[in-house]
């Protein structure tokens, strides 16, 4: 720097530098302010008073003398600068000043040792010292204190002399220089002006003027800096020429500062460069993505001593984090991990860990990031979450705030999913509680102002005491006031804004079944508010070392995941993680865990797009009744029927094994855990029904849907071959194959039965993870009706999981209702009563229509409402459909259907199609009895078991004896199931021909206890109780005799039907089986009991009609051809069968090809020479045989309720002369001449 010697006489002789109201300083370019202020805002007490700066003269002159002093300094600069006094400043070192009570941490130019700052040998240090000397020599008294040496520095903050905070802030300052140096020169710029600063009336230092130094200087540009062009580039980085903008640098409202509003982009680990690099979020801006289910996890990793760092716990923390997902990273659902109390050292450890980088390759920070506090919040995300932006929201308390991330790929460009993580103020005192309330208010205000249309999730350590004992003790000890006590008891979380996922899923007094905590006997009793604790010194060895046991510490649920109360997110599952492994081999070994907190992981589902919601708008809300019991009683009642932990583990293992067997040599697909080879066919296996809904019991089957690209026949052949080949060593075998309209493969894994359905849908495979969220009219669902019905077993299950308000309440209520249905003899859809899907749909409707505070909804209240509502339901006229999917309301109910409970997705089916008027009467009676019992306070509905009462309350019974003594046990079971499936036909016939009789079938097989030990063959009987029906007319003796004869004829006809109907494996053979139907008096029954024997599992494969009672979905009955209703009895079925047997089939012409039916329809519709009104379509109705319909009325859309598959078309006929112009059987085709095409329907 070239200078001109100033006058030896000071220009301001008599003035001294003693006023702290003014200053001459150098302000860094605005480009550096966010990085510097990140630390200054938390550590520098003058952050709000000063911008980032290096003082040249401070203290300076009095405010009154400032104008003349500035003019004098300008004159000195003009006389001295020659070619210019501008110079380069490079802040590349961190240092500290140690005072009596504290220390100041700063950045300075050049190397230094101890307190030697601004080394004259460095370019920056020398230039600054010469400039300071030039200006300060103009005054007789200098304002510096201490040894009077000028040490240029930029203050970052102050800290105590305690080594922990001192070393922490000093290391952050050093990392700040290092991190900035990796991306550019470390805080380097060319100084061309000095800021003249003056304190305003509020005490803030404001820039009021400037002193220009000129652009040229002798300071070296440094390595790589080359001349005027580079110098001009650096000059452009200093504050603009506009003085107003220059005055505002670094002095804005802290809530609107750059750091508070400027979004930061996430970093992603690049496997190519092996580095964490900033992501390009512009690549996804403006794009729309399909919604996905997500997992949100929060974990306080506890950094109790950053110096030295607790490196021994780092591996334990990583293991806990990786335990959140057990699936391979490439197959895992989108997952977001929110960590609290993260230090710079632990962040470096995580970002360098291969397992973490593979599982969570996205992060808010990079290895070069400088975390502002000792304990920080950091967000990680899986690759499927996509790039995201984040920002820091300051709370009023220093070092407290929220990291708020926006995920466009998980929501949309205009409505991204917003995830915030917090670590609120700790402690239970008036001040700390007030601080937490303010912090939550600040966060909710921000979310509603900035992200009102988005879904949001807030996860973290809320430090909210939940133990009522702790809260009451604080009041008793006068640690908190009465107002604070009331506030804490009530809860600080605004329930109009946030909903606690734990309470939504479990309720306030429940927790997940964690083996470690269940097996730990340290605490047998938990108090109110202590269930699901994430901080528990009684079970967590790390927490036990931290707490003060003299203060009686209690378990607290500090860590939570909150969701938007009015949003479309639904809680799918909640659980805790981070527990130490239990070593049964070494019980004396000290258990280790990574943190004093357990983590919380929540799986969230988006509500599906249901299109038209008019059904929901038109549904009337139901008022929840008050009950005098809590859900604990219901849990006690259902507990004996619940699957134990071992059973759940066995089922999970069996599903995994079955997947792996089916996927031998297969490609990977989402949701499948295996490593297939390249080029094979993908197969998805997804549990549906009661297991997927979480309402199965220990005796339930597991129903699964398989989806692939191959044909149905090929799939089942491959499945059977692979299970035979690979299943033996895992205890999995094929039991039988049900070759029905919707085939089912029955498999056993130990004692667990699996029913496998199949759907051929290549497009479904590609978009499997988004299938539940697609609108129902999406083209991807353009499948054949039979395939769509199979797929709907999965779609309907997922719809219920995503729309039921409280799954835990639903599950408890479901199990209670099922136990009642079993005890009351009305749980069997095969007999025309309720099955698993019936109860699920009926109960889901109640849960969705229940009016009131969601937190006040209990299973007991839902059960009361369930029985109160359905005991008054007119089943003969009402249609039961899901209130949130109105398509069921448009179901065209037939007069022959005494009950209508519709499935959810198109094609809608009536799942209660087996119901009869007799079964409806029994259901109505049982609903009424249950409602009366609950109203009177009798909740143990098991005591209402009606089996013994059924055996004595009727004067006479229809007894249907079944006996089998053949070698193939599967045929014995098939025979029994065939009889069961036809009993509703008997009830229909009785209703039609003997209305004077009320019949009640009991859905169990009975045996005679007196003869049971003597039987060597399979033998049992079914009972239908009989009583006089209410016809309202007096019958004469002759009429009674005629009615009795009619009744006997009905029974005889039913017996003939059972013996004559031949259906393959169900064929009745008098050489090894026997069936008898008779009318018996009650006295002739003797001692009977329910037959619990399994008639059919002898370890061999075969074909059989499956049981649908525990299936929850729209699975088609394997005995669908025997489905009855009030318009079809066994006599009509028999007549159809008999006439069909006598009729000689038409012989098809060999080798002749036939145009498809679709071509014929199009020809008739569009050929101008043909009148479409003169043609009829003959098609096969499943119940009524051949029916005819006008061609113009034929529905072609699969989603239409009246859609009929083309393969049912039998012929086309001219109405005028009755001539058949196209016939499938004979391959007659008068329209096209039998020359081209081949039927493929």
Automatic annotation (TrEMBL):
Enzyme Commission number: 2.7.7.19
Family: Belongs to the poly(A) polymerase family.
One GO CC annotation: nucleus
Domain MJ1316 RNA cyclic group end recognition: 1154-1224
Bias kind Low complexity: ranges: 1129-1142
Residue stretches of biased makeup (Basic residues): 1143-1152
Start and end residues of each Poly(A) polymerase central domain: 809-932
Organism: Tuber borchii (White truffle)
Keywords assigned by UniProt, alphabetized: ATP-binding, mRNA processing, Nucleotide-binding, Nucleus, Transferase
Localization per Swiss-Prot or TrEMBL: Nucleus
GO MF annotation terms: ATP binding; poly(A) RNA polymerase activity; RNA binding
Protein origin, superkingdom: Eukaryota
Record-linked PANTHER family: POLY A POLYMERASE (PTHR10682), POLYNUCLEOTIDE ADENYLYLTRANSFERASE (PTHR10682:SF23)
A Pfam family this chain is assigned to: PAP_central
Location of the Polymerase nucleotidyl transferase domain: 686-716
GO annotation (BP), single: mRNA processing
Region annotation Disordered: where it falls in the sequence: 1090-1152
InterPro entries: Cyclic_Pdiesterase, Endo/exonu/phosph_ase_sf, MJ1316, NT_sf, NuclTrfase_I-like_C, PolA_pol_cen_dom, Polymerase_NTP_transf_dom
Comp. bias regions, Acidic residues: 1094-1110
Gene3D superfamilies reported for this sequence: 1.10.1410.10, Beta Polymerase, domain 2, Cyclic phosphodiesterase, Endonuclease/exonuclease/phosphatase
Spans through the membrane: none
Name assigned to this protein: polynucleotide adenylyltransferase
